[in-house]
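Summary of Year 1 activities. Much of the first year was spent building the evaluation harness for sequence design. The harness presents a backbone, in tokenized form, and records the residue chosen at every position. We chose the following record to illustrate the format because it has been used consistently in internal testing since the harness was completed.
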């Protein structure tokens, strides 16, 4: 079993972590942070309704300031760290086995 960890600098690229819409350079205001996921203005109403229904409003950690573009806010939240990490394996593993493999790879 091989685990590959690849870090990539995505620059100013911004997309909604829920719907995948590209907001790079967009001036559309709004959005929120649900856990560690950036939620675009379009997905906010559904996300808030689902969070309320499921008793998960405590996962709403921050809201985009009024009038601020979602993309600009996301870049601000990153604090200059535009690196994402992509982890892949070459086999079929259960989540528990994969977590063990990843921990081993990260602590080498």
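For this record, the design step produced the sequence shown next.
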């Amino acid at each position: 079993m091989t685990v590959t960890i690849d870090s990539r600098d995505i620059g100013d690229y911004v997309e909604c972590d829920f719907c995948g819409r590209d907001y790079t350079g967009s001036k559309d205001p709004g959005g929120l942070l649900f856990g560690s996921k950036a939620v675009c203005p379009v997905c906010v109403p559904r996300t808030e309704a689902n969070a309320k229904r499921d008793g998960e409003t405590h996962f709403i950690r921050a809201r985009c300031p009024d009038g601020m573009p979602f993309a600009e806010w996301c870049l601000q939240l990153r604090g200059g760290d535009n690196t994402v990490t992509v982890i892949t394996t070459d086999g079929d593993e259960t989540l528990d086995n994969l977590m063990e493999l990843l921990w081993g790879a990260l602590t080498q």
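The first helix runs from residue 44 to 53. Quantitative recovery figures across the full test set are reported in Table 2.
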